[in-house]
Amino acid sequence: MLNAPPEVVAGYRTLHLEEARYPGIALQCAPAEIAVWHQYLTLFNKTMRREHISLSANQDDAHTSWGLRLSLASAAVASAKLTLDATLAGYYSQAFALIRHMLETWQQMAYVRLNEPAARQWFSPDGVREPHQPNQNTIARGIRRFGKSDPVLQDLGVVETEISNLKEGAHPTVLTVMQTATADPEQLRLGATFNPDLFRRTWRIGIVALAPLLHEIVQIVQVDEDWWNEFGEIRAERSRLHDLAEGDNA
Fold first, then answer.
1. Residue 61 domain flag
2. Max CA pair span of the chain
3. Exposure class string for 126-153: b at 16+ Cβ within 10 A, else e
4. 6 within domain boundaries
5. Whose CB among 74, 139, 199, 235 lies 3.0–4.6 Å from 111's, allowing a Cys bridge?
6. pLDDT given at position 250
């Protein structure tokens, strides 16, 4: 690929071949769960990959907020795909960091929808000075302040709980150690691994991030009744699989 001697790419190639073993194993272990994630990604793609027009004809706060949310939504689609790739390959701790990225992206989208003047903070005020984007704590407080009666924020409590939980998983912790374990206590895994329990844990948390993001995206772009029907069917299947998993753990 790099037109380089084998010894140059040997490290990457070894890791790549190792991780390439696991998507097939994951698919055999949890085909329905993986299908739900793919359905979400397909809906993301159909929703975003077309022309979008701002409802505001002026270069005002509403237009700036709309453009920023569209950019954040585009980035979230990429994170959703990368999260699935990492989960299928067996990089669970790394996937947790990506899931947190998705949830914090959702928070930012919701915040600037509710507080449109704040969108200016994501951009340089004069093309020279750096933007002064608010931190996530300010954003979280702002969502609660401005969105008390907002029906779109019905999953706010769940999202905040998951962000808190992901703080540990996204950093080197017990989860990272588990990811390197093998059946032989004297050997460690270098690179990816597959663990069905960690896979399902990552899936359950990751799937929480996808629905709120899509729900927020349709506050930016127009969708029809077919879109909502498809969205509802995916959520119903997600709930069914989640309830089955909870039953297995009971």
1. yes
2. 65
3. eeeeeeeebeeeebbebbeebbeeeeeb
4. no
5. 139
6. 47
- What is the DSSP code (8-state) at residue 209? H
- Parts of the chain with a pLDDT under 50: 250
Match 């931190």 to its residue by tokens: 135
Residue entry with tokens 């329990």: 197
Q: First CA to last CA across the chain, in angstroms?
A: 48
Question: What is the pLDDT, as a whole number, of residue 17?
Answer: 86
Contact 200, 245 (CB under 8 A): yes
- The answer to whether residue 11 sits within a structural domain is no
Count of CB atoms situated within 10 Å of the CB of 13: 12
- Within a domain: 25: yes
Tokens of 36: 């739900």
Report how many domains make up the chain: 1
pLDDT digits (tens, 9 = 90+) for 210-250: 988 998 899 889 899 999 999 999 999 998 988 776 666 54
Backbone angles phi, psi at 248, to 5 degrees: -65, -30
The residue whose two tokens read 């907020």 is 65
Nearest to 65 by CA among 102, 24, 111: 111
CA 43 to chain centre: 14
**Which amino acid would we find at residue 119?**
A
| Domain interval for residue 51 | 16-249
Around 67, how many Cα atoms within 13 Å sit in the side-chain half-sphere?
A: 14
Enter the tokens of residue 247.
């039953």
CA quadruple 27, 30, 31, 37: dihedral positive or negative?
negative
Whole-structure pTM value: 0.84
